[in-house]
Design a protein that fits this description.
The protein has helices at residues 2-42, 46-62, 66-82, 86-103, 106-122, 126-141, 148-167, 171-184, 191-209, 214-227, 236-251, 255-272, 278-291, 295-330, 336-369, 372-384, 390-397, 401-408, 414-424, 429-436, 440-454, 462-467. The chain is mainly α and 469 residues long.
Length: 469
C-alpha cells in the first residue's frame, strides 16, 4: 500500500514538473517574440521601442535569459547614442560592459567598450577613447569562431575609430578607417548581406567626405541610396544621405533642391526618432533662408538651434561629471594635477551652461508672452511664400494635431491633413483658394467631404470644430 502511494506521488510529481517546464518554455518563447518585435520596432520608431526596454530587461533577468538581457542593454546604449544623450550613454555602456563581463560574452563586452569610447571622444578624452577601442578589438580577437556577429563588431570598432578622428577634426584619417571597413566587405559572400553592409558604409564615408570634399560626398551618398536593399526601411543612414545631398545642392546654389533634401532628412528623423547630427541640418536651413531673405523661416530654425544647443550642453555637462567621477576611481592620487584641470573644465562648462540657460530662459519668456496670433502670422507667411517647410513648422507648433485627426479617422490622406491645417489657421475659403491655386468651389467641396469623414453636424462651425482638437 505504501509502495503504491509512493509510486503515485512520483508520477504526480513528474506530471507537475512537466507542466511547470512546459509553462516555462512557453514563457521563454513568448518573451523571445517580444524581444524580436522590439528589435524590429527600433528601426521604425526608436522612442516607442525604448519605452519597452526597462520592462523587457527586468523580464530577461527573471527568466535568467542572459543573451536577451545583453541584447536589450546594448539597445539601450544605441538609443542614447542616436539621441546624443551622452550622459545617459556612459552609464548604460558601463552597465553593458559589466554584465557582459560577468557572462563572459566577448561580443557585448566589446560593444560596451565601443560605446564608452564614444562618450570619452565627445568629451575630448581621445587617448582614453582609443584605449577602449583597442581593448574592444583585443576582446574580439579572442573569439576564433569567425562568426558574422564578430565580423560586424570589428566593423563597429573601425566606425568608432572614424568617429574619434572626426571629433579630433581629422576627417582624412576618419575616411581611411571607413575605406578600411569597406574593404572588409569582401568577407561577405551573400549579395544581400554585402549590399546592406556597404549601404551603411557608403553613407558613413559620404558624411565624412562632406567635411572636405563635397563631390566625393555626393557620389557616395547617391551610391548608398542606389545600393540600399528594398526591405530596409529608411533609417539614420538615409538621414545622412539626404543631408549630404542637401549640402551638395546648397554649395551649387540650387536652394530649392537643397531645402527639399534637408526636409526629407528631417521627416525621417521625426518619424523614427533619431536626432543624431540633426542640428547641422537646422543650421544649413537657417543659412539658406537667410540667403533667400525668408526671415520667418530663418528665425524658426534659429530658435530650434538654440534649444538643441542648450539640451546638448546639459547632456555634455552631465557626461563630463560621469567621466571625471569614473577617472577618479581609476586614477591614483599622483594624478591630482589632471583632476585640477578637469575641475577647471567643469567650472567653464557650468559657467557657459548657466550663461546660455539664462539667456535662453529670457528669450523663452519673451516668446511665451507673445499671443497665438504671432504664431499664426508666421505660419501664414510660410503659406504665402509657398515654403515647403510649412507642414514641418506647423507640426512643431501643433505637435498633436495630426495624431488627433488620424485617431478620429485613420484613413485620412496627407493632403486632407494639410487642408485641416489651413482651417486650423482660420483661413477663409477665398484665402485657401488663393494660396493653393484652386477654385473656391473646390475648397467648399473639400470642407463638405471633411464634414462627412468626421461626421461633423451642419449646426457646428467646422472652424470651431477643428480649433477644438
Amino acid at each position: 500500500m505504501i509502495e503504491k502511494a509512493l509510486r503515485l506521488m512520483f508520477f504526480f510529481s513528474l506530471f507537475f514538473y512537466s507542466l511547470l517546464y512546459s509553462q516555462s518554455q512557453e514563457n521563454r518563447k513568448e518573451f523571445k517574440n517580444k524581444v524580436s518585435s522590439n528589435s524590429k520596432l527600433f528601426n521604425t520608431n526608436i522612442d516607442k521601442a525604448y519605452s519597452q526596454l526597462n520592462n523587457l530587461i527586468k523580464e530577461s533577468r527573471t527568466l535568467k535569459d542572459s543573451i536577451s538581457e545583453m541584447k536589450l542593454l546594448e539597445k539601450k546604449c544605441r538609443y542614447f547614442y542616436n539621441k546624443n544623450l551622452v550622459d545617459s550613454l556612459i552609464i548604460s555602456s558601463e552597465e553593458l560592459q559589466k554584465v557582459s563581463g560577468e557572462y563572459n560574452n566577448v561580443y557585448y563586452e566589446a560593444m560596451g567598450n565601443i560605446y564608452i569610447a564614444e562618450t570619452y571622444s565627445v568629451n575630448k578624452f581621445y587617448d582614453k577613447a582609443i584605449f577602449h577601442l583597442n581593448n574592444a578589438y583585443e576582446i574580439l580577437q579572442k573569439d576564433q569562431s569567425k562568426s558574422k556577429k564578430i565580423f560586424y563588431a570589428k566593423a563597429n570598432v573601425l566606425s568608432s575609430f572614424a568617429n574619434v578622428y572626426l571629433d579630433k577634426n581629422e576627417p582624412e584619417n576618419a575616411a581611411k578607417k571607413i575605406l578600411e571597413e569597406i574593404k572588409t566587405g569582401i568577407e561577405l559572400k551573400d549579395p544581400k548581406e554585402f549590399a546592406s553592409f556597404q549601404y551603411l558604409n557608403y553613407s558613413n564615408i559620404s558624411n565624412i567626405y562632406s567635411q572636405y570634399n563635397l563631390d566625393s560626398a555626393y557620389y557616395y551618398a547617391k551610391k548608398s541610396i542606389d545600393i540600399k536593399p528594398a526591405d530596409i526601411s529608411e533609417d539614420k543612414s538615409m538621414i545622412g544621405n539626404y543631408s549630404v545631398i542637401g549640402q551638395y545642392y546648397k554649395n551649387q546654389k540650387d536652394y530649392k533642391n537643397s531645402v527639399k533634401n534637408f526636409h526629407e532628412a528631417l521627416k525621417i528623423s521625426k518619424r523614427i526618432g533619431i536626432e543624431l547630427n540633426i542640428n547641422n541640418i537646422h543650421k544649413y536651413l537657417r543659412e539658406i533662408y537667410q540667403l533667400t531673405n525668408q526671415k520667418d523661416s530663418a528665425d524658426f530654425y534659429e530658435n530650434k538651434i538654440k534649444q538643441y544647443d542648450l539640451q546638448m550642453l546639459q547632456s555634455k555637462y552631465n557626461s563630463l561629471q560621469e567621466v571625471i567621477s569614473k577617472d577618479k576611481q581609476e586614477q591614483d592620487r599622483s594624478f591630482s594635477k589632471n583632476l585640477l584641470l578637469w575641475g577647471i573644465s567643469l567650472v567653464l562648462v557650468i559657467g557657459t551652461l548657466l550663461f546660455l540657460y539664462f539667456k535662453f530662459k529670457k528669450k523663452k519668456t519673451t516668446e511665451i508672452n507673445q499671443n497665438l496670433h504671432e504664431t499664426y502670422k508666421n505660419l501664414i507667411s510660410l503659406i504665402e511664400n509657398h515654403d515647403p517647410g510649412f507642414m514641418f513648422a506647423f507640426e512643431n507648433a501643433f505637435p498633436e494635431f495630426s495624431d488627433k485627426l488620424l485617431k478620429l479617422n485613420p484613413e485620412l490622406q496627407q493632403s486632407e491633413i494639410e487642408f485641416c491645417a489651413l482651417l486650423k489657421l482660420k483661413l477663409t475659403t477665398k484665402e485657401i483658394a488663393k494660396y493653393t491655386f484652386i477654385e473656391t468651389r473646390t475648397v467648399q467641396n473639400k470642407k463638405y467631404r471633411l464634414r462627412k469623414k468626421f461626421e461633423i453636424p451642419q449646426s457646428v462651425d467646422i472652424y470651431n470644430w477643428i480649433d477644438g482638437l
